[in-house]
Design brief:
The protein is α/β, with parallel strands linked by helices. It has 17 helices and 18 strands. The strands form 5 sheets. It has a 7-stranded parallel beta sheet with strand order 8-9-7-11-13-15-16, with helices on both faces. A 5-stranded antiparallel beta sheet has the order 1-3-4-2-5, sandwiched between helices. Strand 3 and strand 4 form a beta hairpin. It comes from Paenibacillus agri.
């Protein structure tokens, strides 16, 4: 069989094998000491910049300017052979990305072909595994010298199933836990098991400022936002504006939520096949969005920042390539910050994992070159993700090296979670020499010793108003659209919002805030509470006050 699929050598000088994960990450993680003057993450993103800029004087248009094309499969009995949608990734060497995907589509009409030149990635998807294997084999034959890696398109899940510590409760969502609606474990629990306080805290009475006057839930429950804003001091300096946009790559956003609707500035996009809307059916993206820019009964870190939804989850899992595609699309759309409250573990040695790791690294590099800050959660398994060998052992992978992705990769600001006592939260991954922490709560200091659940140690978040309330939120008397959560998914968006506020403040002062500068400002001005918190707990007020021309 002969394919009429042509190859375009965009840059004949592009000989770099950009395996940033294997060649850079292991060195960074294992051998780079952390200090206030040593920024391994920054230096490696600079290296990414150098790798791309090495091609800058060739006089050839770089591949990142090429538009992607998606060709949907035709329908028919032969389209569904396995009953399960499957996909494979083909990663081309830099400067060797092919074009004219329509010719490939003509040869195999049952295969969905998506080209993503910025990542050098070609995705083949369909319901017929033999068809996928046939196309992959033919592409390997034709483009053997141009292909860098071929591998699976692994699933990335919104639920980690961390530890199911609460019997009868539902662990729901990437890096967060929500009490199960109607749980008999809650209804029948003795009063001491729910040692929460319904009344407002006496030290959080509203100061009369117009912004916080209406935010009565924030006044009562918003300890985590207050910590990041240094007791609301940053709100008097910078609250953001709609010209600074944070992309929420997640499950969508409840666009009708009263705390969020005014800050959703773009229509967004879905990357889930068969789903055209960005409606949030599981709640995770709405939770993240509110942490960034709620402005109503709750307040986010940046109550006037713009939000844009890039939907990659609909019912709990996604292909990893959808996340890569969402990152690149968000960059094309000129967002300023990308939040990734999601993650997975991949092997640095397993051949089938290399394709997606390279795709992630190139998407992150593309964002970096365009001046977009990428922030991701560290994960909720309580693991040391700073040592690939130990992480692999923790996962039960013998003779392997493991990495958490995308949080944990070079070029990403990776965020761990702290509790109300300024300690590393028990569930949070940790260990990277270049990471930062943000408050994201836990069950309280007496949960493990006495079994007492203290709601004041958890975080109150926005939640889709159309989804059922948990029994716990009803018990406390919360209106629809708010739930108690914990997890690194709540930590990452606080740092994303802080980065966006620095961008807004920099623009007002005529200062260009590059990803390197933003990371440095956040890290240098974080509050140091001790070990395993990376650079410390993010303090956006201090960072804003230290922006100088």
């Amino acid at each position: 069989m002969k394919l009429l699929f042509k190859s375009k050598l965009v840059n004949k000088e592009g000989k770099h094998a950009q395996k940033l994960i294997v060649l850079i990450l292991a060195v960074v993680v294992l051998f780079t000491p952390f200090s206030s003057s040593s920024w391994a993450l920054t230096s490696q993103t600079a290296r990414v910049h150098e790798l791309w800029m090495d091609q800058g004087d060739t006089g050839v248009v770089p591949p990142v300017t090429v538009t992607d094309f998606t060709y949907l499969p035709t329908t028919g009995d032969e389209a569904v052979l396995s009953g399960i949608r499957q996909s494979r990734l083909i990663i081309f060497k830099e400067g060797h990305f092919p074009e004219h995907a329509e010719e490939l589509q003509d040869q195999f009409p049952q295969i969905e072909v998506t080209m993503l030149p910025e990542a050098g990635m070609l995705r083949l998807a369909g319901y017929s595994l033999p068809q996928l294997q046939q196309v992959e084999a033919e592409l390997r034959r034709i483009y053997d010298e141009s292909i860098e890696e071929v591998g699976e398109d692994p699933k990335i899940v919104v639920s980690d199933n961390n530890d199911n510590i609460l019997e009868g409760f539902n662990v729901n969502g990437s890096n967060f836990m929500r009490m199960q609606t109607g749980s008999s474990a809650v209804k029948n629990t003795a009063p001491h098991m729910l040692n929460f306080l319904r009344e407002a805290q006496t030290d959080s009475i509203n100061d009369g400022s117009p912004l916080t006057a209406k935010a009565f839930l924030y006044q009562q429950w918003g300890w985590d936002i207050k910590e990041v804003t240094d007791d609301e001091q940053s709100l008097s300096v910078q609250i953001g504006n709609h010209d600074v946009v944070v992309a929420v790559v997640d499950s969508g956003i409840d666009t009708t939520h009263p705390d969020l609707s005014s800050n959703i500035v773009r229509e967004g996009k879905s990357f889930v096949p068969g789903v055209t809307d960005t409606f949030d059916r599981i709640g995770h993206g709405t939770m993240v969005a509110g942490t960034i820019a709620a402005n109503g009964r709750l307040l986010g870190v940046g109550p006037n920042l713009g939000l844009a939804s890039y939907k990659v989850f609909d019912q709990g899992e996604a292909d990893s390539s959808w996340v890569v595609e969402a990152i690149i699309q968000a960059v094309r759309d000129d967002v300023d910050v990308i939040n990734l409250s999601l993650g997975t573990y991949k092997s640095l040695l397993k051949p089938d994992d290399q394709a997606i790791l390279i795709a992630y690294s190139r998407a992150i590099a593309y964002a970096y070159l365009k001046g977009v800050v990428v922030v991701a959660s560290s994960g909720t398994d309580g693991l040391d993700i700073g040592n690939p060998f130990r992480l692999a052992e923790s996962k039960g992978w013998k003779n392997d090296l493991a990495v958490h992705a995308p949080g944990g990769l070079p070029g990403v600001i990776t965020v761990a979670a702290s509790n109300r006592e300024h300690e590393l939260a028990y569930y949070s991954n940790y260990g990277l020499r270049n990471m930062i922490t943000a408050p994201a709560g836990d069950y309280g200091s007496t949960w493990f010793t006495k079994g007492e659940l203290n709601l004041l140690s958890m975080c109150l978040t926005t939640y889709p108003t159309q989804l059922p309330q948990s029994f716990l939120s009803q018990l406390v008397g919360l209106p629809a659209g708010y739930e108690f959560m914990i997890g690194t998914s709540l930590a990452a968006p606080k740092v994303s919002a802080a980065a966006a506020l620095l961008i807004a403040e920099g623009r007002e002062k005529g200062i260009r805030m590059s990803p390197d500068i933003i990371q440095r400002m956040l890290f240098q001005n974080a509050t140091d509470y001790g070990t395993n918190l990376g650079a410390g707990v993010v303090n956006v007020y201090r960072a804003l006050k230290n922006i100088h021309k």
